[in-house]
Design a protein that fits this description.
about 200 residues; mainly alpha; about 70% helix; about 0% strand; elongated
């Protein structure tokens, strides 16, 4: 059963993001950090995909909210996997969850990191701010033990910040999807009625 589920998710992800021509590794990395087109067009594409998903408005909104929540956490490289698993467990749309992770990008990550660190530090009552954190050697050269004074408040702070943004996302996405599906049903109904009249 789990193998079938992972196969379906992989197929949906490939169909969602595949291109006609194969890309090199460097090009894939560049696109992951910065879209080929403008951020506006990329955002419109996400909205377009969300509205056309076959799941219920609740499942789509829930999945997208899960993706947004995951994107706020500081664990880069795990967002899509965690979002897909959480959506599957909770009953949200897996594809919508994957789309929700794109809320985390080079434009929003600095805001997420700063806000989660500050909120987490506040929740820890300033425990971390009293320590000296040296990142002069580069963040990727530090061990987990050295990074934990930063990751600890960010992880803790990502819970309330992520839940707040997830709730806001759900409230915005669900009526949008409902309105689109209602309009589509109305258009199909009118089309079938006009075709029925034309055959008489």
């Amino acid at each position: 059963m789990s193998g079938t589920w992972f196969g379906v998710v992989r197929f949906e992800v490939v169909m969602l993001f595949r291109r006609r021509e194969a890309e090199g590794f460097l090009e894939r990395m560049r696109v992951h950090l910065w879209p080929r087109r403008s951020w506006t067009r990329s955002s419109r594409y996400v909205v377009y995909r969300l509205r056309r998903l076959s799941d219920t408005p609740h499942a789509v909104a829930l999945g997208f909210a899960i993706g947004v929540f995951t994107a706020v956490t500081p664990f880069l490289g795990t967002h899509m996997v965690v979002a897909a698993l959480l959506a599957w467990v909770i009953g949200g749309s897996v594809v919508a969850a994957l789309l929700g992770t794109f809320v985390g990008n080079p434009l929003t990550y600095p805001l997420f990191w700063y806000s989660t660190y500050e909120v987490g530090n506040l929740m820890l009552r300033g425990e971390v701010s009293e320590r000296s954190i040296d990142l002069s050697g580069g963040i990727f050269q530090k061990s987990l033990e050295q990074l934990w004074p930063i990751l600890k408040p960010m992880t803790l702070g990502s819970m309330p910040v992520g839940l707040a943004l997830a709730a806001l996302s759900y409230v915005l996405v669900k009526p949008m999807v409902e309105a689109y599906k209602h309009r589509r049903r109305r258009e199909l109904q009118l089309r079938s009625e006009s075709e029925a009249l034309g055959t008489r």
